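[job 4471] stage=fold_predict status=RUNNING
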Amino acid sequence: MGTTTPPRTLAEALRARGDESLAGLLRARPDLLNPVPNDITQLATRAGTRASVVRALEHLDRFALQTAEALAVAPDPAPYDTVLSLLTGDGLDDGEQHDDAGAAITAALPGALATLREQALVWGEDDRLRLVRTARELLAPSPQHPSPTGLGPTVAEATAGMSPGRLQEILAATGLPATHDPVSAVAALSSLFTDRTRMAELLDTAPVEALSVLDRLVWGPPYGEVTPNPTPPVKWLRDRGLLLPVSTRTVVLPREAALHLRAGRAHRVPEPVAPAVAAAAERDPQAVDRAAAGQAFTALATVEELLKLWNGGGPTILRAGGLSVRELKRTASALDVPEPVAAFWVELAYGAGLVASDGETDERYAPTPASDEWLDLPAGDRWTHLATAWLAATRTPGLVGGQDAKGRALSALGPELDRSAAPDVRRRVLALFGELPPGTAPDPETLLRRLRWERPLRGGPAPAAGGTAPAGSAPAEGTDLRSRLALWTLNEAELLGITGRGALSSQARALLEEGEEAAAARLAPLIPEPLDHVLLQADLTAVAPGPLERPLAETLSVLADVESKGGATVYRFTPGSVRRALDAGQSASDLHAFLAAHSRTPVPQPLSYLIDDVARRHGHLRIGAASAYVRCDDEAVLNEILADRRSTGLRLRRLAPTVLASRADPGPLLEALRDMGYAPAAESADGDVLITRAGARRTPPRTPPVPVPEGPPAPDATLLGAAVRAIRAGDTAATVARKEPADGPAADGPSGALPRTTPAETLATVQAAAMTGSTVWIGYVNADGAASQRVIAPVRVEGGFVTAYDHTADEVRTYPLHRITGVAELAEDGEG
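[job 4471] inference complete, writing structure tokens
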């Protein structure tokens, strides 16, 4: 077989490729690897399936897709020059096609065809380019699915089934010689429409209104509706075959006529070059880093606040999963952010594995044990953990508040929020940021235009005439999901501190290019160091002039309430907050010592009095379970409670001079007495004061949600190499020449079937091959009943098993003799 013989099928074209080229195909289309094809023929068959071709088309850039669309409307096969002409035009359109655009197309077309060849969408040499049949069906025009080029069917396709008499009428109206052969009539009409001179002469005789009709159809869609009594301009076009009938009320502009009117171009605006991302503003890179670091610090503080908010058990989970609208509003109010932003922080914490369901009967969200480990990390490491989780997450907070395909509301932390394209879009958006000089903020509109060019079938409607995605692509939620993901990425990156003032920060560049350690090291100097002190003031407030060390912040958050946030945090001490600290097991002396140790100013006297006054009354009343009782050594206090009208609902009665009983449970009784101004303490059955510590609720160990992959994962080099070897070996087994058995081909079964021999013949043949070291061809049926053909070199035959080197699997294997359907020797060179 000469190497110059052109391939007749896609399988032959793939078989002629080198190993690197096959590996490139499997890398570009990993769905072809699941499972690994048995041979080249199976690989070619799988590469031509509808689902696989649709997936491959979705990953083409705009010009590669436009090249495939041009091939879909070109003759099959098409020479290179024909494809080039469909993209550049025939040059006879009065200068509408500029020379520089034609030069750009000419320069870009070889690369586009190389991409299509690599992905096995196009095969054949340049003089016989073929688009795979499935891609041609997806991209070719039909009444149900117009071509993305806006071109209609050919004259031959549109006139199929037309009566010979009607064809004769069209030939007569156009001045063509009559012929009784329908094939010749169609050929004559097609020749007229493709002849620039004769077509121009025909259109010169057309009414102006008829030309207006053609102008509306020329760039698609090419179909139009007509009435039973069409207007004279439409009748003129229909009589001359410029409009051909599709049905009783529908006509179509044939492809050859449309191409003449378009000056030979398949697309109105070919786009051979990716649009550049323009700069919206140029800023000082250091200012960008500081702004991003400030936002990163805010992100850490917000997530910490969320964990603190849900520390004792967060909101309940809806039956269908996720947060209710009310709970999301409550969380947004507590975090002091809008609800969409609250949904982002909640989803980020969930995606990072910091919050999860507790799995209890009354299911709630709560911090995970991993959140405590996260809180102990340095600020830089905490930020990289969040940023990495965000980059990989397929959950999309921007969808919260919308509706699913069934009209149900999408809730935060609920199902149906995964979008597998999200990680790819985020990384691509940040990569485009990274291509700009440091400190440059891109223009969002040009960035979106670039993304649509890179993935036109997924990033938005193509601008080509008739702009429709190929049949079967069915992009989710409309064709603008990728653009919406990009816009959400811009907002979320700013919230998280990936970008600052619209530009990519240096710490984010380090995260994308060097890893988490480099990003944390770059961010650390820009984050303020936590402080170990506060400033106490006489108005019962404390001012934290910056972030506080975690132990100090946790204790202070129990002892005081946050009054305001900003550059400095203001805490206010109240009787309730001091009582909360005493309930947590602190004593008055502990609180005095804590404030004295962590205040840069003297402890104000009003604050000391407040602590002593609350501590003196704290625990004076004791509440336990009777249903509930109140115990106090001071009878006068109990008399005061009984006399208070607010205690009527507690149904109190005196059991002893120092004990009151209540029908209320201890918890409600405790809260009711606190509302009346007392400072009771709960006690155990042994009479010991119960200490209530905040933040004791944690979920069982949980793993973060697993991102939903977008198709099969990209194979690594080891897998690609093994897959190529297996395919080559299987192809050798399937195509190797075999000797005919002594009694003729019939004993071997039909062509392509498994070899059939008797058990005695099988044993004798493999024993002989083991002794001589030769290779044989066998048919084998495994334990699951799957049949296959294999080329093996037997090494040992004993105990009813054959141990052999399997050329198909490229390894040594053992086969039970009873599962071998038959064996045949391989033909010598020159035989077969």
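[job 4471] summary: The first strand starts at residue 122 and ends at 123.
[job 4471] exit 0
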